[in-house]
Amino acid sequence: MLIVTFSFLQSCDEDIPSIKSLPILAPTKVDETAGNWKTVLNINASSISLPTAEAISSAAYQAELAELVSLSTNRTASQTNTANYWAAGAVVRWNEIARALVAKYNIAPIVGAPANPNKPFSNPPFAARAYALLSVAQYDALVTTWKFKYQTNRPTPASTNGSIKLLTPETTLPSFPSEHAVVAEASRKVLEFLFPAEKEYLQKLADENKNSRKWAGANTQSDLDAGTSLGSQVATLAINRAKTDRMSQAGSQTTFIDYFNIARIAESERWTSLELPYRPPMLPLYGKVKPWYDSLSAFAALPPAPPSLSSAEFKNALQEVRTIADNRTREQWRIADFWADGAGTFTPPGHWNLIAQDLIIDAKWSEVRSARVFSLMNRAVMDAGILCWYAKYQYYLPRPSQVDPAIKTATGIPNFPAYTSGHASFSAAAATLLAYLFPSKASQLLNQADEAALSRLYGGIHYRFDNDRGKECGAKIGQLAVAWAQADGAN
Amino acid sequence: MQFKITIGFVLMVVLSAQGQGMIDGFMRGRGNLTTALSYSTESYDTYYVKDSAVNNPNLGTISTTSVNLFAAFGATKYLDVVIGLPFVSANASQGYWSTQSALQDFSIYLKGRVYEKGFGALGKLSAMAAAGYIMPASNYVPDAPVAIGHRSKNLEGRLLIQYRLPFGLFLMTQGGYIQRGNITIDRGYEVSVPDAWDYVVRVGGSYKIFYADAWLNIQRARSGTNIGAGIAFPTNAVSYQRAGFTLYSSVPPIKNLGVSAGMSFTLSGENIGKATRISIGIVYNVPVIKDKNN
Asked: Of the CATH numbers 2.40.160.40, 3.40.250.10, 3.40.50.300, 3.90.1150.10, which one belongs to the domain with range B8-286?
């Protein structure tokens, strides 16, 4: 009897949904001039070839409309669910998918195992690049899409045929090419380049995304085909850039010692891995990967050398970490864990994508303006990571627990040098840019970035000066992104 | 009467911080209050990721010590109230994860005898039902490699059957269900802590000044994840088979006082440490509200 009772209690909504329910996107503005916005990869629209849009009156297009009438009026419950899922916005949903893939692949390989291209280790620098590539491909493809949309000016299917049962809000945005198909195909291709083993899964999602637009009554087959073609062509350009951005050499363990002249640092002052067995440091040449914004300005932001281990300044900073570790409050632990975003998670850059997503949904921005946020932010986050990684290997500063093994942590100790803090760098870059785009949330965002940086001191794995210098660099990169945003034509 | 003095079993509590030891097949009797204070130490260097045994050189040996307060009170002849409150400390011998020390979970059970039938010289059969509520007694950290518990609020239901043989021997079997509520972890979101089925079989002898038993405890998670990168620890499906024994002896010069000791061994498991546990304790019987006629 008791057991029956408890089983009943158990069934009372203890379940946590695995898919986040989001509102259907109803943009407050269609951004009709977005076709003139500046692209990141300097896309030349005339070099993009698309299938011709048949006239509204053509038999071919009328047949497509008839298909939509049939599909949208016979929508099954599962098709409605799928259509609702994607109607939250293709940019937002593909960003979520990318975050889930980053989390899935964020597992350190066994020490000594040969690199497996099918199983990339999506650590924070890898993730920063993945989000940037995805966002750039989405944004550039969407800007180009807007250009074609207003050149072609095909009205929405529902405005041409009143029998279509539209699931998504009415819009004046021309429907050819479909922005959903553009994002689906660009995202599928970029993510497949990053996570080759996910090819089939990604294809399934892209097909589902495109089909959802027919079930929703929002796009016809030719809208989708043109979108697929456009998304594919822009994704190829993004992937071509990625193939030459020097990421393939970032993991080299043999050359960084010479490149950064590590031998100049006294052995007692050099970083070493605290893992057993010894694990080589993470992506030591990520600091040489090609940045997105003006790289000369970026490197002018390189922080000065940290204090020497024998200096009073360093000893005071170390003592502060020790005092916090010895007296850590529960709230400090919570903050350390909240921002840790360690192994198996979407990483700190992913955390900022989640924060940006919530702002975008709240703002009800068009797909192209949403993509602009992610593109501006993720490029800044990656560049801040590049600069931070350069500093880490340039200065090769030990973690606090290496210098004082009595320092116990509230989070895992990252397997790379301390100075500067990656969390501080990523977060300051993201928050600086987001604060510009969402001025009403500026102080909240900057506080979040400060807390993310502090979380590493609370965790016992960073000195305060790691955070302070990381934040300064990140903010400078964030300002480069702001300058880009001020001049991209979207204001 | 060899059936009458049955205190030693309370030490089961301290042998296992989990619920199985909280509920035994003996009733306190109206007005009797049994209290116990115990100390346990447990350690493992091998743990199961799902069901594969692994070692982690970056954690070394995980050791847990606990001090447990326990009390059982006979409210009526048919109803006992049982409470427990452990203070637990856990640390890793390698790596840099901070030690965790805190009051763990407060638990309270009501146990009622619902059936009893004597068979004369052949013994006595009794059936009992128990309901428990377990709640965290502090805001301890549940989601870390070194942690002291799940921090979930649990409801528990158990059914017990005990057969008491002549010469103080007994055989007890029980089955229960543990319903664990969701928790919000420090990462900032809510996770589900798996429910579990729990079974105990215990044999032993209970005498005026001495008690001994041996037991087997099987717990099976109903659902849940496996230990892995990024997986919140409290969501793991923890299952195990443990066996152990308990010894109790009264301390003759001091009335109502006893000492106990016990051990338990993890035979196999999933998503749990292969731990060995040793406990010692003192037990004091407080005859506070003794029935005048008794």
From this structure: 2.40.160.40
